[in-house]
Design a protein that fits this description.
Radius of gyration: 21 Å
Largest sheet: none
Oligomer: single chain
Order of helices and strands: HHHHHHHHHHHHH
Distance between the termini: 19 Å
Helix content: over 70%
Number of strands: 0
Amino acid sequence: MSLSTRVLLGLVLGILSGIFFGDRVAFLGVVGEAFILLLQMAVLPYVAVSLVVGLGSLSYAEAKSLAGKALTFLLILWALAIVMVSVMPLAFPDWKAASFFSTTLVEQHEGFNFLELYIPANPFRSLAETTVPAVVLFSIALGVALIGIERKQGLLESLSAIVEALVRITDFVVRLAPFGVFAIAAHAAATMNYHELLGLQVYAATYAAVALVLTLWILPGLVATLTPLRYADLVGPTRDALVTAFATGSVFVVLPILGEK
C-alpha cells in the first residue's frame, strides 16, 4: 500500500479504536504529540538551509526574475486567503451554546509585534521560538548575499548535503505516520463525546469542503496557470504529503516532503 493509503487506514482504525475503547486509549495522545514533535524537528532547519542554497545558487538576473514572480504569486495567495476568511464564516450557523454570556468572560489574548515577527534581530532566537517569517527573511537575506560571492561553491555543496540529511530525517519520521495518525485519531475519538461531535458536524463539514476545493482545485489550478507545471504534476506527487497534513492537522510538518516532491 502507498503511504497515503496507510495513513488513511491508520486514521480510520484510530477513530474506531477511540469510539469502541473510549478512555482506555486516551493515553495514545502522548504518542500522537510525540509524533508531531518529531515531524517538526527538521522542518524549520530545512526551510532555512534550503532557501539559502536555492537563492545562493542563482545569478542576479535569475534572482530578480524569481522575486517578481514570487511577489505576484504571494499577492494572489494573500487575496485568496482574505476572501476565504471573509466568506467561510457565512456558512456557519448563528448558534449560541450558553444561556448566559458576558464579554468579561472572554480571555484577552496578548498582542504581538509585527516587527519582531518579520525582522529577525536575533536569528537564533527566531529559530528557537519557531518564528517562521523572521527565519524566512533571514534566510532570504543570506541567500541573496551569497549571490555576489565568488568563493561560495564549497559552502553551497556543504549546505546541500545538510538539506539532503534533513530530508532523510523527515522521510524516516514520515514512515511512522500511519502509527502517529492512529494515535492522534484514537485520542481524539476517545476524548470527544457524541453530543460534542454533533455540535461540531456543521463546522467540520464546511471546513472539509473548503479544504478540498482549495487543495484539489483552486491552488493546483493557480500554480498550473502561473507555472509550466500541469495539474497532474502537482496533485499526484504531493498526495502522500497532503494526506499526512490532513490527518495531522498541520501543513507545516510536511513542508520538506512538499519541497522535495
